Amino acid sequence: MSAAAAAPAATGSGRELANPPADGISNLRFSNHSNNLLVSSWDKTVRLYDADANVLKGEFVHPGAVLDCCFHDDSSGFSAGADHTVRRLVFSSAKEDVLGRHDGPVRCVEYSYAAGQVITGSWDKTVKCWDPRGVSGPERYALSSVEGRVSMEFFDLSESAQSKKYGTFATGGCDGFVNVWDGINKKRLYQYSKYASSIAALSFSKDGHLLAVASSYTYEEGEKSHEPDAIFIRTVNEVEVKPKPKALAAPQ
Amino acid sequence: MSSAVKEQLQQMSTTCDSLLLELNVIWDEVGEPDTARDRMLLELEQECLEVYRRKVDLANRCRAQLRQAIAEAEAELAGICSAMGEPPIHVRQSNQKLRGLREELDAIVPYLEEMRKKKVERWDQFVDVIDQIKKVASEIRPADYVPFKVPVDQSDLSLRKLEELTKELQSLQKEKSDRLKQVMEHLNTLHSLCEVLGIDFRQTVYEVHPSLGEADGSKNLSNCTIERLASAVNGLREMKVQRMQKLQDLASSMLELWNLMDTPLEEQQMFQNVTCNIAASEHEITEPNTLSIDFLSYVESEVLRLEQLKASKMKDLVLKKKTELEEHRRRAHLIGEEGYVAEFSAEAIEAGAVDPALVLEQIEAHIATVKEEAFSRKDILEKVERWLNACEEEAWLEDYNKDDNRYNAGRGAHLTLKRAEKARILVNKLPGMVDVLTTKILAWEKEREKEFTYDGARLLSMLEEYMIVRQEKELEKKRQRDQKKIQDQIKAEQEALYGSKPSPSKPQSTKKAPRNSMGGANRRLSLGGATMQAPKTDILHSKTARAAKKTEDSGTLSPSSRGLDIAGLPIKKLSFNATTLRETETPRKPFAQIMPGNNVSSTPARPISNDTEEENKTPKTFAALNPKTPMTVTAPMQLAMTPSVANKVIATPVSLFQEKPEPPTLLEEIEYSFEERRLAVYQARLMA
């Protein structure tokens, strides 16, 4: 329990992360190599935490709200900004540069290991692929335009995180509840106790033992006063995420 | 002759001679004549001869008697032997030593006496057997008993005969025992039947034959008796079967009545002993008095009581069923055809004019019919529900759109917005719904050859009416829109003629007031101010935009008011001038940034369609940007703008108000994500 936490850090919520962002959390991601946690926020920062040690390792400040972030490897990552930029962040040197731009706020960013490319989606209705080394502009062939939104449409549920071990996944919504689901057997496995605010983002650690929960008001009811934004690190019990197959196993 | 006799005779003759001498002496003395003498001597000789003769006769007779006796004895002996079937005894032949008849006789006599004795014994045996035969026969065949041979005589006393008779006796005895067994069986059966039927056994048995009732004593075992006994048994068995069937009928009536009237279990259990036998066969019913007259009456009276109860409940049942029928009709929206009611009136039942059971049947039949009809109507009814619900939402939406306060961000505003959004979708689907419904109704009506009514009215008529009203509304809307366009054109012309005017504040202020919760008023003014900081540009733009719009013949709202109104409102629905008669909002153009109009760009990303009048449902991406007027970034934004910003396409607030001609039926729904709205808020804050 972090003493700095303003909200009561209930035992059932997990361990509250120290030095959370000062405004809404747009996304958070665990690294694939360690329990480093990357958090993007409306307070224009991208923060890197060591979730185990509960320590803020680094922080990048952008010109505008950061709408998404992702890891490249354990030493670097990418961010998607409302200022239309896609930035590359190098943690060790605390340096950042602009990888590319869109014509509108960049809503999401993802690194594809398979393709070796950074993929971004923007409210300019385009999806672009970038060379993570920032060699040139976006690969033209990957440019695509769509009529509708690029980012996920808002649902009542805001986030999903996969538990790597079992293939079950967790969802969190504006109601403040995190649910764990078994997609194959189509069952809800578990529900954590209610968080003080909407669940803005979820992420399982690489080994599935930790679940980071961003409890952060997501503006579904417009501007209003709300609970402070916080991040909780939960230790995951197997029972919460292990699938429970139906009594009659489906034919394989 | 023996020597002694000879001697005697000689002596006698000597005596006789002496006597004669004497006689002669006497005669001489007497002087008897010779004649007299001769005569006397003759007499004497004759007399002497007769005496001899007599003696000889006697002896002869004696001899004859003996012979006869022997013959008789022999005859008797032979007779006895033959009668008794024994070999004859020949005494004489067997014994040569016998001398004289007297010895013979004496020899036979012991044999004779012994045989006589044996015969008597044998006869006794016969008599014994015969007596028994008689006795048994009389028991078993009294009337027609004709003994095949009752030897009265004793001509056949042989052992063989005795054997025969003994055999006959045995067979008679066996027959007797068989019959007795039969009788006992019958009696047992009779006894159990009497027990079950509650009839007096002794009396019954006595009537068959008195002797049968005796515990000891011989029972009459005649054919007649046995027949009578058998028929008594059959009679009672038939009675048992009849009563059993009656009881089982009563039991099933009882079960029916219990079922019909939901009789409590305790009551039913009192008659457990009746209902348990409902499927029993004749030989399974053995309890005493289960079929007695009294018991049957008892059960019968209970059934009667139940039936009376049923009759009294009939009325209630009929009413209950009637209610059920009406409920089914109501649910299937078949209310309105009340022709059937009269048949089932309670008064008619009470008055006895109608048989309640019959009425009940009729109602049941009606219920079955209604259920079948309801089933066939189910699909259509469901669609009607949805259509009605959509109409409700349509009506709500109409009211909602007339409400100026609807963008108030008070509590639950979010929910209202959601409802309105959903309502719009629903309304769009309405014509399709009506189409499908109409098709289905027509098919149904054709198949069933009658109208589809809904609570008394013809459903097709309802739908037609609805569509007519709708069309009228649409026409009215269009008319008003056209009017507004004309009015706006006039206004624009005037403005062009007379120079720009500041944006009329009045319509704005009325709108601003309710929006304080958005912090809108100040912001908006400041935004407006921000816009005004480049007034010329902006208004010029507005004008040209308006002009552009005019050429495009689109839009009826005053752009300036819209331009100011839209700023800083990161909400989904854009408000209109109250004078707007539009009932739906213009959708925000997708990807147009919700930001104050300081980023007026000139280059459209896409060519603007000039066909704004068409029912073009695709959203314009960058509405009505004036391609001719170059714009520059006027106010600083927290955006990482590169010099190539001019190539960016950012919609102006004006452009946001690019009027899109409303298709009469379908409206597009553009949603703002929470993030987009949030960003607009943040950027607005920065401007403030």
Automatic annotation (TrEMBL), chain A:
Gene3D superfamilies: YVTN repeat-like/Quinoprotein amine dehydrogenase. PROSITE patterns: WD_REPEATS_2 (PS50082), WD_REPEATS_REGION (PS50294). SMART domains: WD40. WD repeats lie at residues 99-131. Keywords: Repeat, WD repeat. This is Mitotic checkpoint protein BUB3.1. It comes from Dichanthelium oligosanthes. The lineage of its organism: Eukaryota, Viridiplantae, Streptophyta, Embryophyta, Tracheophyta.
UniProtKB/TrEMBL annotation, chain B:
GO terms for biological process: microtubule cytoskeleton organization. GO terms for cellular component: cytoplasm; microtubule; nucleus; spindle. GO terms for molecular function: microtubule binding. The keyword Transferase does not apply. Residues 475-565, 580-619 are annotated as: Disordered. Keywords: Coiled coil, Cytoplasm, Microtubule, Nucleus, Phosphoprotein. Residues 56-83, 155-182 form a coiled coil. Residues 475-494 have a biased composition (Basic and acidic residues). It holds the Pfam family MAP65_ASE1. Belongs to the MAP65/ASE1 family. It is found in: Cytoplasm; Nucleus. It comes from the Eukaryota. Residues 500-511 have a biased composition (Low complexity). Its main location: cytoplasm. This is 65-kDa microtubule-associated protein 3. Signal peptide: none annotated. InterPro entries: MAP65_Ase1_PRC1 (IPR007145).
